[in-house]
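Researcher: Next entry: Tetratricopeptide repeat protein (Yinghuangia soli).
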Amino acid sequence: MQPRNMSMRGVVDLGAVKAASEAAAQRAARAASAPQAGPDGTPGGGAGGGFFVELTEENFDSVLALSQQAPVVLEFSSQRSAHSIELGAVFERLAEEFAGRFVLARLDIDASPGLAQELVMQAQIQGLPAAVAVIAGQLAPMFDRAAPQEEQLRQILDQLVAVGEQRFGLTGLGAAPGAGRPAGAEGEDDEAEAPGDPLLAPAEAALDAGDFAGAAQAYRNVLLDHPGHTEAKLALAQVELIVRTQDADPAKVRSDAAERPTDVDAQTLAADLDLAGGHVEDAFGRLVETVRRTAGDDRNKARLHLLGLFEVIGLDDPRVVKARAALTSVLF
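Model: Predicted structure:
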């Protein structure tokens, strides 16, 4: 087998695709076997399985940023309202059942009156019990003054998840806790080389031959049958970046982007070149600004492209976390 082509300029190195994929798989395995943390960074306990958080002014931005990955349900609650307490128990059961396909963020209006007043005004809440959703930074009404039955609420959440997936490409927060290795296996073979995945063999053969387009199609074929395949998803994002930029004229791309600041195609290609050249924050900043300047389908196209670049770098990268917060600020 010939050495894998490593000619990709900048930080996105084609030769690192397989190694990065294996590292991502190992991180996922370790995360699955470890206690799940809640979206606010604190240990997630109780019925929510780590997908439930008490919303405060301090964690508001970080929780709302999660709406770029999964719908965030803002539940307005008060210990003075028996109906909202009953609804809260139902919500927690469903948060566990949906396992990261939505995030439950409970706002105690008595504990955080300032934040509650602001959100109640924005969401036009008339009374408790009440809930609204945030999908990719956009507010979506759910109900107020009358709580649905559990099965009705489950159907509403199914619809929210479907809208998030189909219109905004939201994939959820990942597997539920406790899906990792058996007890006592922590740390075993963490440094061992992961065995080759036969599903990826056609894509790797195409990479060895320098056939980027063929490799991209092979990864897509894997994802058609295995949409949750971490390695294929990461590798596809990286190879698609190579395909988009390999024949681009950098001078012309940057000139077009400067002349047409609201042209989404011009801005996304310039962002691709930024990323390929190692200018990660410039790429993210360019597309956040494009989202701010545009509307409708153009805005959504720029947003989805930015989410794809997040996948290239890795969702746990601090630059991605920062850019997610900036994107949410622009959208919400």
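Model: Note for the record: The CA atoms of residues 260 and 266 lie 7 Å apart.
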